[in-house]
TrEMBL record:
<dbReference type="InterPro" id="IPR000644">
    <property type="entry name" value="CBS_dom"/>
</dbReference>
<dbReference type="InterPro" id="IPR046342">
    <property type="entry name" value="CBS_dom_sf"/>
</dbReference>
<dbReference type="InterPro" id="IPR051257">
    <property type="entry name" value="Diverse_CBS-Domain"/>
</dbReference>
<feature type="domain" description="CBS">
    <location>
        <begin position="10"/>
        <end position="69"/>
    </location>
</feature>
<keyword id="KW-0129">CBS domain</keyword>
<protein>
    <submittedName>
        <fullName>CBS domain-containing protein</fullName>
    </submittedName>
</protein>
<dbReference type="Pfam" id="PF00571">
    <property type="entry name" value="CBS"/>
</dbReference>
<feature type="domain" description="CBS">
    <location>
        <begin position="78"/>
        <end position="131"/>
    </location>
</feature>
Amino acid sequence: MSAHETLHGLLRADGPVLAPDMPIRRAVAMLVGGRVSAAPVIDDSGALVGILSQKDCFRPTLNASYYQEWKGNVVDFMTPRVVTLQAGIDIADAAEAFLAHSHRAFPVLEGDRFLGMLHRSDLLQRLVELS
């Protein structure tokens, strides 16, 4: 394995990006339609302020199925304390992060700037290619 290979080539930058004030129904549809497990929540200044996962979407979706009405915005259901990875780390360190956390994806930053999402399936595929 190339221990010094960084994350840049593995990032998905074309997935959904959510705003805190986006209606939760629209955000759930974007996650389901995009077949992604999580999406970053970016504010007007471009800062990462949270992440919305499929797990986060169960409560509003279940409530909507009971009451036939969607209520709330992304900010009401997102996870605000986000575990992130820095783009310059090597893929072995990223694999260790997936071992330490149950997340299916991590937002990847360069400094404070959001670059894309690293999905564990993409990293696992790359590790298999290198082994």
